[in-house]
Specification:
Layout (H helix, E strand, L loop, with lengths): L6 E5 L8 E5 L2 E7 L5 E5 L13 E3 L2 E3 L6 E2 L5 E3 L17 E7 L2 E5 L21 E9 L3 H8 L5 H4 L11 E9 L2 E7 L7 H6 L6 E8 L3 E8 L3 E11 L5 E10 L4 H30 L16 H12 L11 E6 L1
Antiparallel strand pairs: 1-10, 2-3, 3-4, 4-9, 5-6, 6-7, 7-8, 9-10, 11-17, 12-13, 12-18, 13-14, 14-15, 15-16, 16-17
């Protein structure tokens, strides 16, 4: 379990005046805002009787337990016990665990480990920049993080799972160049077919140039870019938050630049994107429920699973506290789409 990294706990708008509970890597965490409005993440357990602190309330920027009124500050220290007459001050013997927490790109991020290996979370590209339009999606997948990443960055499955919506079979061979990066890997596709696709008929009706790349950013982010002529660019970035071994919360930001009608295009593009992602949710749910029926879950990896070996190599290495060696030379793979 890769605990020493930033994961999205919830959208910023969900954390207001009341404490909320979230689950990250099987950890039960309570979130609230202190007197300065900054997010705080503590274990969701009162040191007194184990009451869930998310059932309490925020008083003066401190979290008050609903059972006996014990109050905790942003460090997890008990600073007030109503049944005792003592001045406010940290009672370290009753302190509960505090998690590193920050706010960025419209999300509350938490590191469920001791200390994040990255100073700040990975940013969503182009979000909030002039000339770009964005919308956000949230989905819970009944699948581990690795399966989600593999799905998001797997080109061949779109021909079947998203047939006619996103891609249709053409039996055309496409060249894919795979390159290792210092934070993951990227696959670039050349001369990719676009016919018989509802998405591209709406978003890119002209047969101009298209640059398509799929990128894995360790440990748990995917980024898909489509760059067209006439200054059109679509980016779909997904950040995976492991709830536990078999559940993953996926926060997706779709950002695009489409001349001056981005806001109008969103009216069509957003429901279409929700439809396509819902197909992936159903597919992974069926896959995982079927795998659970078997004692052994071995996968056959072929050359056309271009980014899966990199995803596994990186995540296995990071789980062992090391960074994998970067393969310097790019290599080509032929994929029939």
């Amino acid at each position: 379990m890769l605990t020493d990294y930033w994961y999205i706990a919830c959208p910023t708008g969900r954390l207001r005046g009341k404490p909320i509970v979230v689950n990250l890597l099987s950890r039960n965490i309570v979130l609230f805002r202190d007197a300065d409005g900054l997010p705080v993440a503590l274990e969701n357990r009162c040191a007194h009787r184990g009451m869930p602190l998310a059932d309490g309330k925020v008083v003066g920027g401190r979290l008050q337990c609903s059972y006996h009124g014990w109050c905790y500050d942003r460090t997890g220290c008990v600073v007030h016990v109503p049944s005792q007459s003592f001045s406010d001050g940290c009672r370290n013997e009753s302190a509960i665990r505090r998690y590193r927490c920050c706010e960025q790109d419209g999300y509350i991020w938490v590191c469920p480990g001791v200390e994040p290996r990255q100073e700040t979370p990975q940013k969503f590209p182009f979000l909030g920049e002039h000339g770009w339009t964005s919308f956000r999606l949230y989905n819970r997948f009944e699948a581990p993080v690795e399966s989600c990443l593999e799905n998001f960055l797997d080109c061949p499955h779109a021909t079947f799972v998203h047939r006619s919506w996103f891609r249709s079979p053409t039996d055309r061979e496409v060249r894919c160049r795979v390159s290792a990066l210092e934070d993951g890997a990227v696959a670039e596709y050349f001369d990719e077919p676009r016919e018989r696709s509802l998405v591209w008929s709406l978003l890119s009706p002209q047969q101009g140039g298209m640059q398509h790349s799929d990128r894995f950013i360790a440990p748990a982010m995917s980024r898909v870019d489509y760059v067209f002529s006439e200054d059109r660019h679509y980016t779909i970035t997904s950040s995976c938050t492991p709830v536990n071994d078999v559940l993953t919360d996926v926060y997706t930001v779709v950002t695009f630049r489409y001349r001056k009608i981005g806001a109008l295009l969103r009216l069509v593009f957003e429901p279409l994107s929700r439809k396509i992602i819902a197909q992936d949710v159903r597919t992974l749910r069926k896959q995982q429920r079927n795998l659970a029926k078997y004692e052994r879950s071995e996968f056959r990896i072929i050359e056309q699973d271009v980014l899966l070996p990199h995803i596994r190599r990186w995540r296995n290495a990071l789980s062992e506290g090391r960074v994998p060696a970067v393969r310097t030379e790019p290599y080509d793979v032929r994929i029939v789409i």
